[in-house]
Amino acid sequence: MKTTGPAELDWNEIERRLAFLAALPASARASMRIEKLDADELLFRAGAMPAGMFFVLSGEVRLVRSSRSGAEIILQRARHGILAEASLDQAAYHCDAIATVPATVLRLPRDVVRQALKEEHFAAAWRSELSRELRRLRAQCERLSLNSARERIIHYIETEGENGALTLPQTKKQWAAELGLTHEALYRTLSDMTNSGAIRIDGRKIRLKMNRALRA
User: Fold this and answer.
1) Is pLDDT above 70 for 203?
2) Which one of 138, 163, 186 terminates a domain?
3) Residue 200 vs residues 108, 109, 135, 172, 182: alpha-carbon distances, Å
4) Are 79 and 59 in contact (CB under 8 A)?
């Protein structure tokens, strides 16, 4: 993990990626650090005491636990925004945070965040960001309630993509885990949908080809 201090931060770029951080008090910015993670690198481990709050600028960081059978359970995937917001008031992390791909995160001491939240301007921006994440999680819950792999794939492309097209930021095996599918089921369904003309796959880009009524 490579860490740099506030003097090397490009705040214009940070605010472009995470607009809500524009409301962060100037006094808090001096404590900010930027950390670059390699793919599969651990950011923090379950059981550790939270000392900082993290904000994902690029790449992807996942919060994961292991089931009793040893399977990975994904609790959150963050490509931008607040990571592990619940740790603001917890005595220990309850999961591991691992970079899925090379990622850049901002780190701010937890006490500094708590102090900044006493200012209404930043508190309002924080609440707005949490609301955005809640909407995303609701969409994820709705997706996992769908019965078929086909329905989950279409729902994901429509909610996470743009204009019926999605560029995968992860491997298909990782995507299968997020969809609650085996990777075999995902590959088989993608093949069937491609053959039927429902989607077109070009490398990491997947585009829906049929209108919603025909896809249903």
Assistant:
1) yes
2) 138
3) 42, 45, 28, 15, 21
4) yes
In the beta sheet, which residues pair with residue 98?
42, 62
Distance between CA atoms of residues 179 and 156, nearest Å? 8
Print the domain residue range for 48.
Answer: 2-138
Residue 44 has pLDDT above 90, yes or no: yes
pLDDT attached to residue 208: 92
pLDDT at 149 over 90: yes
Take residue 213 and report the two structure tokens written for it: 């009524």
The more confident residue out of 167 and 2 is: 167
Handedness of CA 11, 15, 21, 23 (dihedral sign): positive
CATH number of the domain residue 43 falls in: 2.60.120.10
The single residue listed with the structure tokens 């993509």 is 161
DSSP letter for each residue of 79-116: SSEEESGGGGG-SS-SSEEEEEEEEEEEEEEHHHHHHH
Enter the pTM of the model: 0.70
Contact 94, 23 (CB under 8 A): no
When pLDDT is cut at 50, 70 and 90, the band that residue 4 belongs to is: low
**What does the DSSP 8-state code read for residue 39?**
T
Picking from 138, 163, 187, the residue at the C-terminal end of a domain is 138
